[in-house]
Amino acid sequence: MDIEQARNAQNDRNWSEGPLPLQDRIVPRQQHPQQVMCWAGVGYGVKTPLFFVPAGTSINGEVYREFLRTKVFPWARRTYGNRPWVFMQDPAPSHKAIETQDLIRANVSEFIEVDISPQRKNGKWPATSPDLNPLDYSIWNELKTRACAKKHQTVEALKRSLLKAWDEIPQEMINRAVDDFSKRLRKCIQANGGYFEDK
């Protein structure tokens, strides 16, 4: 997410009986606004803290595995204890590395694997997953809408806004998004793994 104000070109409209002044018709944007990368996880009745990736960090397999070891798995152990839970992620290169999947398998009760390569076809997750992750089809947009309603002057201000917005997202909204997963999965199966958003 970046420090610019979030705008929805489809839904943000100005209705006027006459021409709007020029400053109301132009949306100034920086060419390369400062950004922050964050990671979060959700489940029915739970959400992780919002974790920020240090600026300039390239997320390769080694960095991602260290993040899982030091942040995600300790949180999961505190939250779930001995109760079963399922870990799901998209097929980003750092996620589908063999070492990463081995690490996850050794630390969680159940894991939805992704294909390591198109030739192996050993994963259970669609290769081009059409928004089956509750964060992707619901929660990230809600976070951006809440946190980026106005432009931020600094990355630190954006981080504060993101943390506040994350804390304010109701668990009921997350639970509904998680409940939608099985419906979306059925639609994905009906579409043979293809696009299904408007079906």
Automatic annotation (TrEMBL):
Classification via Pfam families: DDE_3
Q: Which residues form the Tc1-like transposase DDE domain?
A: 24-159
Q: Which InterPro entries match?
A: RNaseH_sf, Tc1-like_DDE_dom
Q: Which Gene3D superfamilies match?
A: Ribonuclease H-like superfamily/Ribonuclease H
- Give the region (Disordered) as residue ranges: 1-21
Q: Which residues form a coiled coil?
A: none
Per UniProt, what is one GO molecular function of this protein? nucleic acid binding
Q: Under what name is this protein listed?
A: Tc1-like transposase DDE domain-containing protein
